Amino acid sequence: MIEVKEVEKKFGRKKILKGVSFTANKGEITCLIGINGVGKTTILNAIMALTPIHKGQILIDGEPLKENTFEKITFIPDAITMLPQMTIAESMEFMHDFYASWNQERATELLSFFKLKPNDRIASLSKGNSAKVNLLLGLALDVDYVLMDEPFSGIDMFSREEIANVFTSHLIENRGVIITTHEVGDIEHLIDKVVLLDDGMVTKEFNAEEARENEGKSVIDVMREVYVR
Ligand SMILES: Nc1ncnc2c1ncn2[C@@H]1O[C@H](COP(=O)(O)OP(=O)(O)OP(=O)(O)O)[C@@H](O)[C@H]1O
């Protein structure tokens, strides 16, 4: 389980996170939802210790992040980090050399799942294919937790559908996934848990299935109650 406890974060004098708390379980897809600039990426960066926090605590399976935790968790940012002149195949080799947790079999499966061509250069990829390569490089690691920053942002409907299919496939298996988004529409059915953020705080944390079954409400219905007052 990933536990984010009372996390506070400032940039200069501006307080971005004002005591954010939530949990994300293994085997579930947790979605952080909030408008642009609310601090979604900052939360993922904080979980990965890529940015320092000023107060609070983040635990992964009960322990603070340490060097060996990086074999347990991966972060898929919203833009590809491979060099533009590299081919997809070279990017995969790079990851293979760098991470002990690289799973070549899964990488090859993802390559065909996304219908990507290994000899295409990163610089030549469309936004949709670039997002798919990014996802491939993260999901091919045998880790327990995957953090994804806006995996559906700015890409066409068909690419979004293909990416969404990964979430319901064995490629996610029983990992814990945290994704961020500001538009929940066409991924609503994939989400187990929702964490709504507003003004640097969690305004509501709920189980999407329970809201549907017990109250007959969609994620968007609950969002409307919280944000449109
Ligand atoms: N390195 C930084 N220095 C100063 N301010 C920053 C820095 N990184 C982020 N911020 C500010 O912190 C706030 C939260 O940024 P963040 O990127 O976490 O938001 P977000 O919810 O992910 O937004 P988006 O949906 O646009 O990606 C924004 O106001 C942003 O301008």
UniProtKB/TrEMBL annotation:
Keyword set includes Nucleotide-binding: yes
InterPro entries linked to this entry: AAA+_ATPase (IPR003593), ABC_transporter-like_ATP-bd (IPR003439), ABC_transporter-like_CS (IPR017871), ABC_Transporter_VariousFunc (IPR051782), P-loop_NTPase (IPR027417)
The keyword Transmembrane helix appears for this protein: no
PROSITE patterns: ABC_TRANSPORTER_1, ABC_TRANSPORTER_2
MF annotations from Gene Ontology: ATP binding; ATP hydrolysis activity
Key words, A-Z: ATP-binding, Nucleotide-binding, Transport
UniProt-listed SMART domains: AAA
One Pfam family here: ABC_tran
Domain named ABC transporter: residues: 2-224
Parts of the chain that traverse the membrane: none
Top-level taxon: Bacteria
Alphabetized PANTHER family for the sequence: ABC TRANSPORTER ATP-BINDING PROTEIN ALBC-RELATED (PTHR42939:SF1)
Protein name: ABC transporter ATP-binding protein
Organism of provenance: Aquibacillus koreensis
